[in-house]
Design a protein that fits this description.
Three copies of one chain form a homotrimer. Chain A is an alpha/beta fold and 342 residues long. Chain A has three domains: 3-85, MurE/MurF, N-terminal domain (Udp-n-acetylmuramoylalanyl-d-glutamate--2,6- Diaminopimelate Ligase, Chain: A, domain 1), CATH 3.40.1390.10; 94-306, Hexapeptide repeat proteins (UDP N-Acetylglucosamine Acyltransferase, domain 1), CATH 2.160.10.10; 312-342. Helices cover 18% and strands 26% of the residues of chain A. Chain A contains five helices and 38 strands. In chain A, the strands form five sheets. Chain A has a twelve-stranded mixed sheet with strand order 6-9-12-15-18-23-26-29-32-35-37-38, covered by helices on one side. In chain A, strands 7-10-13-16-19-24-27-30-33-36 form a ten-stranded parallel sheet, with no helix packed on it. In chain A, strands 8-11-14-17-22-25-28-31-34 form a nine-stranded parallel sheet, with no helix packed on it. Chain A is flat, with a radius of gyration of 27 Å. The N and C termini of chain A lie far apart (94 Å).
């Protein structure tokens, strides 16, 4: 493909040499001659000028010597071109002879069940879905079209997985929620968890993350949400559409998150908390109360982000402040003493 | 079952219609006609009044129109009834032909070894225990009666698992503790971890949690303790009876926790720390020193909970306080200056 | 072996009875008669005096009644002796009949592939390497010599694992990094992750930890680094040589850690951060900015450790300080009021 073809494909405009042959797409640092890269912000302009790339995707014309393609979303265009230049390989369709199939399993077209996959009874797996080696699909599960289940994933019974979903290795969907009540002798009695998990279309879940089944009803991950590695989603949560849960986030039971929520790494949310649409919570924060939408928060406990940012600048100065207060007290004591002596 | 039968079974007293047919037990929000629900605190009374439930378990008579069963522990009664109305299904006993058995494996009665389970040498598995697909039981392990090992669990060699234990998918028991010492050239030399893990009766461990083997001796999880998902228990820890470790808690090496300890989500405990009986630590806290029993703690580092609660209310006001101190200083300077001029 | 033999082996000097027969090596608490233990610091001297050990490894002569071996590194000597007295058992070399092998797999000498292991195409596994049951090795991977892959590990395609590496159960190497960009409709579009993971020699990775493949290029774990359980290393990170990542640490994308870095439990590092050589970060800390080497840090956000230590002593006193400020204000108001009335 030459640069003109690429511009046409992504709906962009060439400034420079449209006949330039593009052999790969790359990040600024690793691009070589013949490669197309992308720019996402003026601060990388210096890096771009040092890059060996032959062309660049930009959102507005830049003063650079290489050819440019102007497009409103350079990174989005890059992501799509990456898919073209490096199409994801998929194992061939078919059922490996070592697969263990339960009764009444219904498979769509071009399904791949890799070696040592185990599928329970009454499972439905739709067209083009791929299950990698050693994954376990419990009974009464359903998987949509074009979904990918990686190795060593466990789906407990009754899990419902949508279309174009990716579950990375070691993910556990539908383990029992953490629910107990004390008996007369102070022992924890298990409350049977009879609900399930539903994961909607276009969700991706990172390696070794866990999404517990509901106590009753459904733990729900809505369309387009992306979950990173080692994330915990407890029973009866609803995670809204197109949200982002970064690695090691933990969400306690019965929370409701809106759409386009972003929880940064290692953040936590207490049980029964509602988080509004388009909320961002910075890393390490603890959300203990409901948060209104369209706003950013931080801290333990989480407060509006600007407040948290100002307060953390004071933290290292606390010993100084404490000393100053002691000093002020002593000076004020002196003044008051003199007053009373007057 | 009618309401009278239920009351008799749980030792409760009917107020209302004992002949009422009960078709299911449900939470307040999802209960329908014919269902029995439960009330745990006055604050849910409004929800109960809006519920479609036909009857309710309560600890004292309430002013509601539906029938009531009075019992000292409504939630405990509910948990037991749930078990009756929704008995947990178990796979049929038997050894799937794909199971790989080591030498000298001794199986009790009605044991289930599901597809693709791998069992090492010299393993003992007692009556009614179920192992789900693709779990790996190392050599010289023993599993008690009526225990459930879910898919993709790994038990390293020499692990001892009690009766009525549940290990959820992806749990790792007995991996090496994290022990090294530096050599002359600044390289970490592994200290072989030759101990094991013992998990006593009635313990439940959540998905993808890890309990490391002891360096020497035993990492011990005592009876009745419940561990949530993605929890880390390091080598040589002892977790007391009937304790609760919520998701993503991390406990460093050689800690001793008492009985009925509760560590909320994402809390951490430093190595060699002793936590007394019936201690509660709130989420996100860092326990760096021994904690006396029968008390609650919070913060990084953890302090008595009431102190932490008061101090976090001040955190967002720190910039204001710093400004006020500057203001006080300047006013005091003025006064002192005038004094000296007098 | 008698004590003289041991001293010779480790290059130490006996004070006491060189002919003493040593039957095992043990920690101070669990040592019995005939056992050799070690002392690492004066504070354990009392414990040593109460120990039943017959001999002790010390770095300088101690006033104890039992025999001593003086060596500059008692713990290092202990680690090496432990290896002698308790050699780690390894499964016999060979390919279990249940193993699933792809095309063009090249195996070195004395390789062990245990039951239900699955190996993809074009994989190379070098001499003496052991793969435990149910591990999955993706296509185009290479494993060095004398490496150990535990059960239920997943290596995605193109992973490169060095010599003498240990990957504990449930580890996931090479899952997709967490990279998306928004499209015109606010949906997250996946940026294909076309890089890989390289793990150098002598690295150990704890149970259920995750190391993501690079977006492009390589996520790199350098020689001798030790990673504990449930740790997250995101795409495009470089972790320097001989570093220590304690349990539940999370490192966001594109970070560069130097050599001999120590991140204590549950610490986190934001994306694109550089951490200098020999940096120590205490548990629970959040590293949001680059850290200079050869220093220690703590806090959220992380600041130099001595500053953090002083500021956390003030935290519990914040309510008192706030009250004192109000009090000072009121007293100052009084003084100013009187002044103005004069």
């Amino acid at each position: 493909m030459n640069l003109g073809d690429i511009a046409e494909k992504i709906g962009g405009k060439v400034i420079g040499d449209a006949s330039l042959e593009i052999t790969d797409v790359r990040h600024i640092e690793s691009a070589e001659e013949g490669h197309l890269t992308f720019l996402t912000g003026k601060k990388f302009l210096d890096k771009l000028k040092q890059s060996k790339a032959s062309a660049v995707l930009v959102d507005s014309e830049q003063e650079v010597e290489i050819s440019q393609v102007i497009t409103p979303g350079p990174m989005l265009a890059f992501a799509r071109l990456l898919d073209q230049f490096h199409p994801q390989s998929r194992p061939k369709p078919g059922i490996h002879p070592s697969v263990i199939l339960g009764e009444n399993v219904v498979l769509g077209k071009r399904v791949t069940l890799s070696a040592l996959v185990c599928v329970g009874d009454n499972v439905q797996i739709d067209d083009d879905t791929v299950v990698y080696p050693s994954a376990v699909i419990g009974s009464d599960c359903s998987l949509g079209k074009n979904t990918v289940i990686h190795s060593n994933v466990t789906l407990y019974n009754n899990s419902v997985i949508g279309n174009h979903v990716i579950l990375h290795a070691g993910v556990v969907v539908g383990a029992d929620g953490f629910g107990y009540t004390l008996d007369e002798k102070g022992r924890h009695v298990k409350i049977n968890q009879i609900g399930n998990v539903v994961i909607e279309d276009n969700v991706e879940v990172g390696a070794n993350s866990c999404i517990d089944r509901a106590a009753m009803g459904t733990t729900l991950i809505k369309e387009g949400t992306k979950i990173d590695n080692l994330v915990q989603v407890a029973h009866n949560c609803t995670i809204g559409e197109h949200s982002i849960l970064v690695a090691q986030v933990g969400i306690a039971g019965s929370c409701e998150l809106g759409h386009h929520v972003v929880l940064a790494g290692q953040a936590g949310v207490s049980d029964h908390v509602k988080v509004g649409d388009q909320v961002t919570v910075v890393s390490k924060s603890a959300v203990l109360r409901d948060l209104e939408g369209h706003s950013a928060y931080g801290g333990i406990p989480a407060v509006p982000l600007n407040i948290w940012k100002r307060s953390i600048t004071v933290l290292p100065k606390l010993p100084d402040l404490a000393r100053k207060i002691r000093d002020l007290e002593s000076r004020l004591n002196d003044i008051e003493k003199k007053k009373s002596e007057e």
